[in-house]
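Lecture notes, unit on protein representations.

Consider one protein chain, 111 amino acids long.
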Amino acid sequence: MTAGHALLRIYTDETAYCGDRKVFEIVAERARDARLAGATVIEAMIGFGRSAHMHRRHILENDRSVVIELVDQEERLRAFMTDQRDLAGIGLMTLERVEVIETGAAQPEHA
């Protein structure tokens, strides 16, 4: 087990913008720029938060909940989390320790 790894989840939705850019795109770009170990943006089928508004895909609009998952050392994720406070479209952030089983290192090519 690799000690000190954590999973940061950032909850937002497709319609959350910061200026002319979607919040989830900004967070993913910032994670890459911070050289975090990994980031995945997941679109939920349905979701709601504090406002109890149901976010879902409609025929004429996209309003799904989005979860951004980031994996790295806990200290790095805590620092990254602090740097996201300027993004108004973030609904909730959670942090939990995780066990990293495999790093996904490139496999050697077979001849």
